[in-house]
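#help-structures
NK: newbie question, is this the right format to request a structure? protein is DNA polymerase IV
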Amino acid sequence: MKRSILHLDLDTFFVSCERLLDSKLNGKPILVGGTGSRGVVSAASYEARTFGVHSGMSMKMARMMCPEAIVIRGNAGTYSKFSKMVTDILQENVPVLEKASVDEFYVDMSGMDKFFGCYKYAGELRHKIIKETGLPISFGLSENKTVSKIATGEAKPNNQLKIDYGMEKTFLSPLSVRKIPGVGDKTYQTLCHLGIKEVKVLQQMPREMVENVLGKNGSILWQKANGIDHSPVIEYHERKSISNERTFGKNTTDMDLLTRYITAMTENLAYLLRNGNKMTACISIKIRYSDFNTYSKQVKLPYTSADHILIPTALELFHKLYDKRLLVRLVGVRFSDLTSGSYQISIFEDTKKTTQLYEAMDKIRSRYGSRSVIRANCMDVHSIGNDFNPFNGEPPTVLAHRNA
């Protein structure tokens, strides 16, 4: 059976949400992101993009390039609510849904042509989302995820595009290799140095040659350029929480030890959030005393996955909850009210340097283990690290629970 894969992407999502809240912003150049001098652009309206502004650019530079732009510090909670509205509509109306990010979705519509025209049904679904949420959304429809995603990019803004079976290579051929998913700055520069700027040149090259230059990634890139992608749509299941607990071999009142464990557990969970493209809006601390009485305290906070926000919050909760007169048997940290989205969404209040620091640390952890980069005061806190990705499948709620 031929596959029919739909890719949907909410256009300039953060900007569109802000315009729903304030119609005076319609038609004007908008920048969403950090409002300070060291802030970063998280989203730019099409009006601002005509000045050369793009996401990831420093806000200072963006303001210089587009001085008439209206700058808004983003609200992750607001965007997550709008994202959930779209997610709910899709879950009610499609057989298999994958939520790739806060504003991006894949749908497997294979076999639906027997009952509906897939393209017609996708168009009706798109208009339903626009009508019920007010958000502009574009889609691409083809036989695989790669071609559909690229088609969505070509359909924007606020439009739709279908690539017929057998026309994948023809559609991709005249496009820039930069439009292939997974081609970043470094890969693009390498391809340009080889004289490969258009997809058609990559299509004509022997697969082995591309693999020799770019390694295993070269083989994947060649397949995508030729419209080959067998990756499945992974059904979306929103995980509600992740947690980490520590039972001590000997009950303790050592405040320094307790705070180091809270810090280490929170740091590890924050890494798992970022690694799973998730954020949390609720953090809880749990304490079990030697008499087995257990207490917990939680606090709501704006969506984040940043250590420098989560760790101080966790420690503050712990100090409010802890009764220093009693011996502690167990401590735990729990993140709940999770939503999809990378740390990029939280840079409204942070600098680009901070974001790059997390990216660098997480890259090392992904390669060498979650304990390869840790805070100095947590170096003697053992058996905290957990490299298991809790957002693939349905693992146990508690990620680690060992005697210390």
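mod (FA): yep, format's fine, and the tokens are attached above. The chain has 14 helices and 13 strands.
NK: thank you!
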